[in-house]
Amino acid sequence: MNVLFIEDDRMNRRVVRDMLDVAGAHMEEAESAEIGLGRIDAEEFDMILVDLRMPGMDGLTAIRHIRARDDAKGRLPIIVVTADRAVDLRERCLEAGANDVIFKPVAMDALFEAMGRLLADDGDELI
């Protein structure tokens, strides 16, 4: 499994990379939404993890850009990874096109459960 994590904080990327390594998944990093969108254009991914609050383009805008694509990459599973706990956050993320939301600090079981649900919906094997 090849995962793209769009997140501006290096430590958060490292923590999630270590978790995905345990599952045997490969993670690519993008430190901004703009870089992440470029990587999606150039590379193949099975899933995208995205933070909401980043300098420049925010995560919701990035999700909308991904969903606006008319190719298979526009349908990639997307999980929002955020520290924001606003009351309507989950609804706003789902409206933008995210498939799920998990909260920081990221717990390994929450990450794997969310990924597993999306993979099961897609007919793939669980991590």
TrEMBL record:
Q: Which Pfam families match?
A: Response_reg
The source organism is: Sphingomonas hominis
Alphabetical list of Gene3D superfamilies matching this protein = 3.40.50.2300
Q: Does the keyword Plastid apply?
A: no
Locate the Response regulatory domain: which residues? Answer: 2-119
Q: Which InterPro entries match?
A: CheY-like_superfamily, Sig_transdc_resp-reg_receiver
Where on the chain is 4-aspartylphosphate found, per UniProt? 51
Please report the name of this protein according to its UniProt entry: Response regulator
Which SMART domains does the protein's record reference? REC
Name the domain of life this protein comes from.
Answer: Bacteria
